Amino acid sequence: MKKLAYVLLIVLLASSLASCVFPGYKLKPGDKIGDMTITNEWEPGVLNFNEICSFEELTLDDTCEIPASITKFGISRAWAEDTQEALDLAWSSSKWEMTFDGYKVDLEPFGTFDMELGGQKVRAWNVYIVNPAPGKHEVRYDFNIENTIERGNHNTTFIFTVMAPDQVGDSSPSTTTPTLIPFSDEFMVEPGDNIGDFLITTGGGKDITYVWNLHSECVKQGGVENYSCKVNTDTKMNVSWGVYASLNTDLDTMWSEHTYKMFINDRPVNLEAFGSIDVRHPTVGPMRHWNVVIVASRPGEIMVRTEAVVDGESSEDAKTFIFSAP
Length: 326
What we know:
mainly beta; Immunoglobulin-like; 2 domains; 6-stranded mixed β-sheet; 27 strands; globular; disordered N terminus
């Protein structure tokens, strides 16, 4: 009788392992949460979730709806660099963690794959969900990358809702090309884009405020180049650094030789699309900025990271612009 009870216990335990996840366990390829399966098996036509919904819907608006007819899709995050050597170096020092619906995921067994996208080399985690349960789901990536200009800690939380079969709006997207796109054209900030309650646009004239107008309003946070800046909601804020001429080099030459990257809420900005604007600083004289202007529709916060090399000097900072009512 004891032997039979022991056998039944083993059977029941095996059955529970097929559908439950114990505390502290990390999900591996083939594991299940209820009827959902997490896997690393790619198939032609399988989309990543940021091809089904926009980046804003997944990360900011919480309005991403995935049709019930899509029974398998990727939930992957990736990293991009300009060259394969830079990507290999950055990835070699990186440390990644992921959770799906609060369950920790053991990423290493899922593996990665490389691709080229928009002239950049991209490496993506190879993670998919099969038979997603109707309702809201959350995917979070926390990672640290040191061997890159964008070194440091990063995190992204994606939220999406899988529709039930009888819910309105259940239709599959027309695209069928599978890619994992953290730095796609859709991901990059373009003129006219909205990020939450903020319009990212261009502008000139006396009604534009530049970062150097906010000396007393920007407070350094901690021991790194990280600042918080108080701004009124009626302010049209140019958030680009400015370049000015040196004693030995004119402004046009300084501008043509400088390199500059901008990220708004961790999304890269397509600076070429915004173009540049010339202004006059009260102390240094003529300056040139990238013409990136943020306009708030209501109080809130938005973060801008910038990385630049000007006249051989490299620098970077992060500013959180806190828009509040006048």
